[in-house]
């Protein structure tokens, strides 16, 4: 049995062929995604892959993931932004969505106008713990219904009024489904049901709307958004190898994944707020190596300057250079350009992981100092995995990934203190994630065979 697995990304379209019986990677290919007609990129990738395969090879499994055409764009609505709003955001990110905005409390007229402009694919409507506030969830459902939106809605709030909210939206012919409450009680995060509902809507509505169904003849079913596939592969790997941190440095975004409990290592440290789920993803839309290069230069400016000084680089106009670099087909053509790309990649990874991990605040109290943790404590994670072309083709991948570790001046950030670095040169994590639900053993073997240990920087 053989599988053809595809990832239609915002920058590159990638194909993998896998022998399911031996967990052998038969071949891979990657070409620039063709946004005007995604089928062209897939056809070009197939032309590159086909010569690597035995003549007449048949595929019994065909699956694809996609983050092209803007990926899965979602808006979350909750009661308290730091509670149900944050829970909704975590559920959406775990489902592979790009969260455009999180709204709290009652939706205002200005919020509804902004929603029209954002044009999300899905609205995740939360609010109230089970048995708690009923007013805001119903009020927001009523506002969305009166707006006449055709955006799909996932209701994942107080179960006592979820069906009533569903009826209000259905009466206005708004496509909607009900999932379990993302925050059934204070401090208890329950995201799996909402994640499943979001992915099902992605398959049933979003794929059709973005014209991706035309690829089914070659690629079979489009199973999930690319980030969800990568997370599924990482969860499988963590089940066998232990807790890990991974970063996917793309052209448009930088995605960070942690599969770790994240509980405080120190007894004196108090965790406050919602603890993210064990399998947790964040996405940074301003950190990318091609289309988001200008935003990345701006977002990492102080860090980038610091790295440049440490590398003894002369003063340089990073902004002008980033405009050139933002073209998808751009590649460094000399040593200096390769060095600058490496420094920007390091800055993106360091900044993205700084935002992902927990942060400790020291408070002075009458009883002495208190250490307050918000987010995950990942200091004890020993495996860091790098994904993306800047890591694969960079001058020093170990130096780039070292940004994932705690640096001088970052003691308040709960980043790994030391870890082994791995990279995914064949870019097979998404493929393993697509296989995880039906061929878990093969998928795990595939990851173990293709991940490579990197030397230290």
Describe this structure as you would to a colleague.
This protein has helices at 38-49, 81-94, 109-118, 135-147, 159-171, 192-209, 216-219, 226-241, 293-299, 301-310, 318-325, 335-356, 389-392, 397-401, 429-435, 440-450, and strands at 2-8, 12-19, 24-32, 61-66, 73-77, 98-103, 122-125, 152-155, 176-178, 221-225, 244-249, 254-259, 269-272, 279-284, 359-365, 368-374, 383-387, 420-423, 452-453. The chain is α/β, with parallel strands linked by helices. The protein folds into three domains: 2-69 and 214-225, Nucleotidyltransferase, domain 5; 73-205, Rossmann fold; 227-453. The strands form four sheets. A six-stranded mixed β-sheet has the order 14-12-11-17-18-19, sandwiched between helices. Strands 3-2-1-4-10 form a five-stranded mixed β-sheet, with helices on both faces. The longest helix is centred in the last third of the chain and has 22 residues, at 335-356. The two termini are 40 Å apart.
């Amino acid at each position: 049995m053989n599988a053809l697995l595809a990832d239609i990304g915002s920058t590159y379209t990638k194909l993998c062929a896998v022998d399911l019986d031996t967990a052998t990677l038969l071949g891979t290919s990657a070409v620039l995604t063709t946004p005007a007609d995604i089928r062209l990129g897939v056809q070009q990738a197939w032309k590159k892959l086909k010569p690597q395969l035995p003549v007449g090879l048949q595929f019994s499994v065909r699956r694809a993931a996609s983050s092209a055409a803007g990926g899965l764009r979602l808006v979350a609505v909750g009661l308290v932004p730091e509670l149900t709003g944050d829970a909704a955001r975590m559920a959406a990110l775990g489902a592979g969505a790009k969260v455009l905005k999180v709204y709290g409390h009652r939706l205002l007229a200005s919020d509804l106008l902004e929603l029209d402009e954002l044009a999300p694919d899905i609205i995740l409507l939360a609010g109230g713990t089970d048995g708690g506030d009923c007013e805001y969830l119903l009020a927001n459902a009523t506002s969305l219904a009166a707006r006449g939106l055709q955006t799909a809605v996932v209701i994942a709030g107080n179960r006592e009024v979820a069906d009533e909210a569903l009826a209000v939206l259905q009466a206005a012919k708004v496509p909607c489904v009900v999932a379990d409450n993302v925050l059934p009680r204070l401090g208890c995060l329950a995201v799996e049901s909402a994640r499943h509902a979001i992915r099902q809507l992605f398959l049933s509505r979003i794929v059709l709307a973005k014209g991706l169904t035309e690829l089914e003849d070659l690629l079979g079913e489009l199973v999930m958004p690319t980030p969800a596939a990568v997370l599924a592969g990482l969860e499988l790997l963590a089940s066998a190898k232990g807790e890990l941190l991974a970063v996917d440095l793309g052209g448009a975004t930088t995605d960070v994944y942690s599969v770790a409990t994240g509980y405080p290592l120190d007894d004196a440290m108090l965790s406050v707020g919602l603890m993210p789920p064990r399998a947790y993803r964040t996405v940074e839309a301003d950190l990318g190596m091609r289309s988001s290069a200008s935003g990345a230069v701006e977002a990492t400016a102080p860090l980038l300057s610091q790295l440049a000084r440490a590398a003894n680089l002369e003063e340089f106009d990073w902004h002008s250079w980033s405009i050139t670099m933002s073209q998808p087909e751009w590649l460094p053509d000399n040593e200096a350009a390769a060095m600058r790309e490496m420094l920007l990649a390091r800055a993106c990874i360091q900044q993205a992981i700084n935002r992902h991990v927990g942060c400790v605040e020291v408070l002075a109290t009458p009883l002495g100092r208190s250490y307050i943790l918000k987010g995950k404590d990942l200091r004890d994670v020993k495996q860091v995995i790098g994904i993306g072309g800047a890591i694969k083709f960079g001058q020093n991948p170990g130096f780039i990934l070292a940004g994932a570790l705690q640096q001088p001046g970052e003691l308040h950030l709960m980043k790994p203190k030391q870890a082994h670095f791995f990279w995914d040169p064949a870019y097979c994590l998404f493929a393993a994630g697509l296989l995880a639900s039906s061929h878990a053993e093969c998928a795990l073997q595939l990851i173990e065979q293709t991940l490579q240990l990197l030397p230290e920087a």
